[in-house]
Write a structure and sequence with these properties.
The chain is an alpha/beta fold and about 260 residues long. It contains 7 helices and 12 strands. Helices cover about 20% and strands about 20% of the residues.
Length: about 260
């Protein structure tokens, strides 16, 4: 990747068409952007922008994502050097595969993740798969996908509120990985679910055999129904703006077994 792939934007843009899936970034709320890193929004990164133009990224996609993240930053009017923090929802290669390159290209901002996933991010390896599932056991016998590891500067805890664009609450939702977190941006009522639940056209569970403990994933996801938010944003799939909390709660009630 050349430096031209990381342009410095001339100024911040105040609009984005939320319907155009091909746009480099989609505005979810004032200062909150979704950056699709795979076509059809199958994998997303998120950007939270401060009043002074500094930004926090949430997740860094696969190893092919950095160029799209660069385009999303430029679209949102954030210079790479103004990214001051990267938050990881969990340690899987479709969320951390691009971390090392984005970290280097943005001036090495602080990287933060839950304490239970921090060792995997540092080593560039995924946590174990669910041993109760046949395919999970099979995956454990195969060579694991790896990615360049990266330092983790701070370890998160459940309930912590990060100083991100007015307050980003950490919600520990383990199961998909031991340290998986969802994130609630309190000023705008945008919930980033991470991989607690997916939305590839409809709300669904993550792929069971990619979880460390699929039963725990389903158990801890119910906390998402207890939070207050108006937009549900997914790392896999487009956001829900219409009755977001009600639709998430309906899914969780229907799948409570």
């Amino acid at each position: 990747m050349t430096d031209a792939a990381w342009p410095t934007p001339p100024g911040r843009r105040g609009r984005a068409s939320v319907a155009a899936m091909s746009e480099p970034a989609v505005l979810l709320a004032p200062g909150v952007w979704r950056i699709p890193t795979v076509p059809l929004s199958l994998v997303n990164t998120f950007l939270f922008v401060e009043d002074d133009g500094r930004g926090t990224l949430v997740d860094c996609g696969t190893s092919r994502a950095p160029r799209r993240i660069a385009a999303g930053l430029a679209h949102a009017g954030v210079a790479p050097r103004d990214v001051t923090r990267i938050v990881l929802t969990h340690a899987h290669p479709d969320h951390a595969g691009g971390l090392a390159e984005v970290h280097a290209r943005t001036g090495r901002p602080d990287v933060v993740a839950h304490a239970d996933d921090a060792p995997y991010l540092r080593s560039g390896t995924a946590p174990p798969r669910d041993p109760s599932l046949p395919f999970g056991r099979l995956l454990e016998r195969l060579p694991d996908a790896t990615w360049p590891g990266c330092s983790v500067d701070a370890e998160l805890r459940d309930g912590q509120v990060l100083d991100v664009a007015g307050g980003l609450r950490v919600v520990h939702t383990p199961g998909h990985t031991p340290g998986h977190v969802s994130l609630l941006h309190e000023p705008t009522a945008v919930l980033v679910t991470g991989d607690a639940i997916f939305h590839p056209g409809r709300i669904t569970w993550p792929v069971p055999f990619f979880c460390t403990d699929f039963a725990l994933t389903k158990q801890t996801a119910h906390v998402l129904g207890e939070l207050d938010y108006t937009v549900a944003a997914f790392t896999h799939g487009p956001e829900i703006r219409d009755r977001a909390r009600e639709r998430v709660r309906a899914f969780l009630r229907a799948r409570s077994g």
